[in-house]
Structures are given as C-alpha cells and as structure tokens.
Design brief:
This protein has about 220 residues and is α+β, with helices and mostly antiparallel strands.
Length: about 220
C-alpha cells in the first residue's frame, strides 16, 4: 500500500486499477496500515484503513474504574461521572420520519422516493460518525488513567430483541420497545468497550449485570 500526504487535510492512496485517489484526512498523521477498503455510501466514496491502535501504557497506579451502561446514559463511571454519546439533534431526528413519509408516498422508482431515502441514510450515517468519533476519543481516557477497567457485561443482542412477537402471540408495547432498542443501539456501548480493549489489552474485564438488564442510570 502506497500513501502520500499532500497537505494538512488531504492525502492520496494508490488504488490498483484506478491509480492515485485523493482522500481527506480525518487524523493528523497518515494511517500506518497494510490494507484498506474503498466503499460507496450515500453517494460518497470512503476509504477505510485497517489500523490497530498502539496500546496505551498503563499508569502504574493500580487504580480501578467501573463503567455501568444504561438505556439513557452511555457510560456511568464508578467515580460519579456520567458520559453520553452524541446523537442526532432534535431538529435532525425530526427530519427522519418526514423524509421516510415522503418517500413512502412517492411513486415507485421516482427521483423523489430515492432522494428521500438518501436523506435518511445520510442522517443515520452522520449519527454513526459522531458515535464512532466519540467512542474513539472517550476510550482513551480510561485506558490512560486506570490500571484496570471493568465494564458492566450486557447482552445487547437480547436487550434489543424485537417485541413484535408472532401472529399467534403478538407482542405488547411494540413501538415503545422499538424506540428503546434504537436508543440502546445509538449509544455505541459495544464499540466503547471494544476500543477500550484495543487500547488497554489485558486491562479490561467484564462484570455481570443484574439479570442482564440495563442499569437505570440517569
């Protein structure tokens, strides 16, 4: 893989069969990776480099921090701090059902239908980008400050299981449960734990949560 930095914001990578392709840097330095992947999402091209972060050196203090995870608070630290992952603003979130409704009413195969769904996809991609950026920055703090990080172990797959049920046994409060599921997934709990483990290998543990249910923080 060959990558050259052009200036503070732009670099270029040599893609086999395509030649040199410019891309905008999201980090100060060039990625130290052996592989990369180019994808097309929501009408925009993205290049992602497979980078394994350098482990953060343990502080040597022997301090331990516990991190609980709830439905509203992304991370409730045992020292009393509460951290929340940024999501879409109220104004941005209100646009999602509006665009979905317009797309649903538009004729099949029309430009209006495609444009509406594209706008929804861009909003969701914006939220995912904020979540990844927050997890990347936030995971550095416990790895750098504490010798041992203990995460509340949650089965996120079970927590976000659909409440729809079956035709014979329909579920209850399906819409409320679906909203809670979206809120849980938007918090990026699994990604925060994963990135912390990458930066503090061997210094991250899981502790059982009561009944494997969300802790009612906040």
């Amino acid at each position: 893989m060959v990558v050259h930095k052009l200036n503070r914001r732009w670099s270029q990578v040599k893609v086999p069969g395509c030649g040199w392709v410019r891309f905008r840097l999201t980090r100060p330095e060039l990625p130290k990776a052996k592989t990369f992947r180019v994808t097309l999402r929501n009408g925009q091209w993205h290049v992602a480099f497979a980078v394994i972060p350098v482990p953060v050196e343990a502080p040597g203090t022997g301090e331990v921090i516990g991190i609980g995870r709830g439905a509203k608070i992304t991370a409730a630290l045992s020292d009393g701090r509460k951290l929340s992952c940024p999501q879409l603003t109220v104004k941005e979130r209100a646009k999602v059902p509006k665009h979905q409704l317009r797309s649903a009413r538009a004729p099949k195969g029309s430009e209006q239908k495609t444009a509406g769904y594209t706008k929804v996809a861009k909003l969701k991609a914006r939220e995912a980008g904020r979540r990844k950026d927050w997890c990347e920055k936030t995971s550095t703090m416990p790895a750098r400050t504490y010798g041992l990080v203990r995460f509340e172990k949650l089965n996120i797959k079970n927590m976000t299981r659909s409440a729809r049920g079956t035709a014979g046994r329909p579920g209850k409060q399906v819409q409320q449960r679906a909203g809670l599921n979206r809120a849980i997934l938007a918090q990026g709990r699994g990604l925060l734990r994963q990135r912390t483990e990458h930066k503090a290998p061997g210094r991250v543990e899981d502790v059982p949560a009561p009944d494997d249910q969300p802790v009612p923080h906040g």
